[in-house]
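I am writing to request your help with a piece of structural work I have in hand. What I wish to show you is a protein chain and, alongside it, a tokenised description of its three-dimensional fold. Could you please explain, in whatever detail you think fit, how the structure tokens follow from the sequence? You will find the record immediately after this paragraph.
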Amino acid sequence: MVNRVILIGNLGRDPEVRRLENGAAVAKFSIATNENYKDRNGEWQQQTEWHDIVVWRNLAERAENNLKKGMSIYLEGKLTHRSWQDQEGNNRKTTEVVANYFRILTGAGGRKDNEGGGYFPSANDEISNTATNSSTASSSNVSEDAAVDDDLPF
């Protein structure tokens, strides 16, 4: 079984850090990921998803000292679900990513994913049919050794 999440996104707020009675630090923050696509009318659309992130102990302290709203980060973790009752007694649920690793990609105010370089296409990334056909033809000549030597994490 695998429960692994990999996200690249921009921080929506500075991390909120608190310390438990046993001294363990926990930090919470949110990141936004963007996906660009063409709708049925051929117009480019951007869809933003917000993800709640939780980090513990040393990683929480690192987040407190280094992460700021607007920064672009790469993170890895696992998907978790929690249930609780709010102050009015209503049952509540949330889904979070408990991260076990993050890496800062840009500083606050740095280049954003929606300005190019992201993992989803943008209006500037449109490929002509001739480029697609030539890349398809050349990819069929790739050796088996090159196919095995990819950088996929799975």
Notes: Confidence is low (pLDDT under 50) at residues 111-122, 124-149. Residues 129-139 form the longest helix (11 residues).
